[in-house]
Amino acid sequence: KQEVTQIPAALSVPEGENLVLNCSFTDSAIYNLQWFRQDPGKGLTSLLLIQSSQREQTSGRLNASLDKSSGRSTLYIAASQPGDSATYLCAVRPRDSNYQLIWGAGTKLIIKP
Amino acid sequence: GAGVSQSPSNKVTEKGKDVELRCDPISGHTALYWYRQSLGQGLEFLIYFQGNSAPDKSGLPSDRFSAERTGGSVSTLTIQRTQQEDSAVYLCASSLGGQGYGYTFGSGTRLTVV
Fold first, then answer.
1. Of A4, A18, A71, B89, which has the fewest CB atoms closer than 10 Å, so is most exposed?
2. Cα A98 vs. chain centroid, distance in angstroms?
3. How are beta strands B10-13 and B109-113 bridged, if at all?
4. Can you say whether residue A105 is alpha, beta or left, with left for phi > 0 and alpha for psi between -120 and 50 degrees?
């Protein structure tokens, strides 16, 4: 059974720092992995989608990597800003399900001005 | 449309009333998903549509919950005889039909049952 873990559960860093959020999954048989952010009381915003054949994706200050064989993904945020404060969720799409995503519990990120 | 649209954004209802939540997916997205998120909790899968069919309704919490999708587009989630434990943010997402595509979420409907 696929399980997704995100560490740390919470992270607080000063503005301007580069930081890494971690996501691990137990079964490498996935179609893709997607990173989302969620602001309090809001919906989810898709940040990056990495297909199983890809190693990384970049969007602005965000870079997500995928090491399928080791069951790990990282989300790198460069030059963090207070507006980056949110909960970051990763989700994998397993090959044994044609639609379901398996979700991590999220990392709550606070960027201190 | 440009994104997934959900309405209303907020709904306060009295216990025992019925409510309807609407989701308008991205044009051309054949797959549509409903999730629920209670305060401080993770995402709870409710139902999945492929076109107008719902292959998996296993996440619906009780028979008070139902959902339909018409024309392969708009979906409505109906909760009958609402209870206080139904209070949550209801999120809708859509995607293209293949396994390689990602989800796009709407902004959600915050339901409060008083």
1. A18
2. 21
3. parallel
4. alpha
Residue B19: pLDDT over 60: yes
Condensed to tens digits (0 to 9), the pLDDT of residues A50-106 reads: 999 999 999 999 999 999 999 999 999 999 999 999 999 999 999 987 678 999 999
Distance separating alpha carbons of residues B95 and B35, to the nearest angstrom? 14
Q: What CA–CA distance (Å, rounded) separates A83 from A30?
A: 31
**Residue entry with tokens 């201190």:** A112
Q: How far apart are CA A23 and CA A3, in angstroms?
A: 10
Which residues in chain B touch residue A45, judged by CB atoms under 8 angstroms apart? 105
CA closest to B43 among chain A residues: A103
Interface of A with B in 11-40 (CB under 8 A): 31-32, 34, 36
Tokens of A91: 């989700």
Q: Is B104 on the interface with A (CB under 8 A)?
A: yes
**Rounded-to-integer distance, Cα B47 and Cα B65, Å:** 10
